[in-house]
Amino acid sequence: MTNEELKIKLSELLSTVTFEEAGQWLNVNMDPKDWLSFAGSLRNHPELNFDYLFCLTCIDWKTHLSMVYHLESTQYRHTIVIKSKLDRNQPQIESASYIWRTAEFHEREVYELFGVNFLNHPDLRLLILPDGWEGKFPLRKDFEDPVNMIRL
What's CA 53's distance to the chain center, in Å? Predict the structure, then answer.
């Protein structure tokens, strides 16, 4: 399926999506409140079959956070990037761990490093950082390390 055909199909699934033309893959912007149902459609739609979540990360833009999901269909070999803008003061989005099992650990990492709350996550707790790091998000741009070596 070409990017143009993907745009048509994705717009049929969720009319509010927008697209970015730059980049290697088709970039899709969407509202976080639509994420869970849209993600399920991406995984289960027979013409799309996005069965592989190969990257899940977050970006701090200082004014807001963006969740970024890279998805691929191993059957059809098409790839898309889903982006969703989150409120920086209370970032939350539904967990995709019930749709793509690999999201479970990726979401835990984003939770501890950026502070994104993944609603209905089966085990949302620290993954990498030691106890005592709760509430300190080291990959946010306003984070200051304890010895003040890095300042953004």
Answer: 10
